[in-house]
């Protein structure tokens, strides 16, 4: 047992009367006191000082035994501490950020690992699609995945910072915003297919049964009616994948990135044969290369990449379609691996 002295100076002892306790809880309080005495946590005392007890219900349904020491704390003299040492003031015992080549290399390797096999996989029409969404005060995040045997494999990630007006939304509205934005972002994967939507916000299960919605909620529900999905609640401790993405906002150029990506999606009929990932079974590199060569948009870019690493001149691309011109603009972000064209 740890003992310490409470310095109250020359203030007379404070003896407070006990608070009213329901008779139904008297036995519960006596058992808690007996348990703490038996475990050596407290000991019997007879003196002029007394503070009332308070029984508080915990989240797990058990009872917490508390003592109201506010009157005692008001007269307790605060402890004095010495001045900080010079090495503490200089932060010598704190973390210092250093940007070295090894750190940069490790950071890039981590990003590559999170967007390559075996993390990412290709979407399969014969597998169930799962969409996990989450929202925080800073942003929204989502993870699109599929069941592959006994494990879930990620198809793609999504995250977006919230604007100033959106940060003023209530928690439920933010979570609903995360669902709407995530489903619209993964339109090419979700439209026309039934999928499972998982969220850690239990109240969103009433989404499809909401009576007489108005304003923004009504517009969002109307947009979601184009999709077939089932909402499932998942506890926050099991929802870490989407939660992490919602809490890592992009502080710079996030609106520009989203606008550019939205424009790209509107202008181009994106082929699902091209993903930011590497090869995984059951498709081989030869099969993917063959599929890309059969794609009228990807084929010209792939052939030029195979022949030369230099970007073709504008005169060569000018007669081509807008979709091919868009890939030409992304030339430096495209790279070859085993004869397959990837977007970095």
From TrEMBL:
Report the superkingdom from the record.
Answer: Eukaryota
- Cross-referenced Gene3D superfamilies, in alphabetical order? 3.10.20.370, HIV Type 1 Reverse Transcriptase, subunit A, domain 1 (3.10.10.10)
Stored SUPFAM superfamilies: DNA/RNA polymerases
Q: Which GO terms describe its molecular function?
A: endonuclease activity; hydrolase activity; RNA-directed DNA polymerase activity
Mind telling me which InterPro entries this protein's record contains?
DNA/RNA_pol_sf, Retrovirus_Pol_polyprotein, RT_RNaseH
Task: Identify the keywords attached in UniProt to this record, alphabetized.
Answer: Endonuclease, Hydrolase, Nuclease, Nucleotidyltransferase, RNA-directed DNA polymerase, Transferase
Q: Which residues form the Reverse transcriptase RNase H-like domain?
A: 126-227
What is this protein called in UniProt? Answer: Retrovirus-related Pol polyprotein from transposon 297
Q: Which organism is it from?
A: Araneus ventricosus
């Amino acid at each position: 047992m740890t003992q310490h002295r409470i310095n109250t100076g020359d203030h007379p002892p404070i003896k407070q009367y006990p608070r009213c306790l329901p008779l139904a809880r008297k036995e519960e309080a006596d058992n808690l006191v007996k348990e703490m005495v038996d475990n050596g946590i407290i000991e019997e005392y007879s003196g002029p000082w007394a503070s009332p007890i308070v029984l508080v219900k915990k989240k797990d349904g058990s009872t917490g035994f508390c003592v109201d020491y506010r009157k005692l704390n008001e007269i307790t003299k605060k402890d004095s501490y010495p001045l900080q040492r010079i090495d503490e003031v200089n932060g010598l015992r704190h973390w210092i950020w250093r940007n070295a080549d090894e750190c940069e290399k490790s950071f890039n390797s981590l990003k590559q690992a999170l967007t390559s096999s075996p993390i990412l996989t290709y979407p399969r029409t014969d597998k169930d699609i799962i969409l996990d969404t989450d929202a925080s005060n800073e942003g929204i995040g989502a993870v699109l995945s599929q069941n592959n045997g006994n494990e879930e494999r990620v198809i793609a990630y999504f995250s977006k910072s919230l604007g100033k007006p959106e940060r003023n939304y209530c928690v439920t509205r933010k979570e609903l915003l995360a669902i709407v934005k995530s489903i619209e972002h993964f339109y090419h994967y979700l439209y026309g297919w039934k999928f499972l939507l998982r969220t850690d916000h239990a109240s969103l299960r009433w989404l499809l049964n909401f009576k007489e919605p108005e304003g923004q909620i009504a517009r969002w529900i109307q947009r979601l009616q184009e999709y077939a999905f089932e909402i499932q609640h998942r506890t926050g401790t099991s929802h870490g994948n989407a939660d992490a993405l919602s809490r890592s906002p992009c502080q710079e150029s996030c609106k520009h990135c989203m606008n550019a990506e939205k424009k790209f999606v509107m202008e181009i009929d994106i082929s699902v044969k091209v993903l930011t990932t590497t090869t995984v079974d059951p498709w081989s590199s030869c099969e993917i290369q063959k599929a890309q060569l059969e794609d009228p948009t990807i084929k010209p870019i792939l052939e030029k990449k195979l022949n030369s690493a230099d970007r073709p001149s504008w005169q060569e691309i000018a007669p081509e379609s807008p979709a091919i011109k868009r890939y030409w603009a992304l030339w430096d972000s495209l790279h070859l691996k085993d004869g397959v064209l990837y977007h970095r």
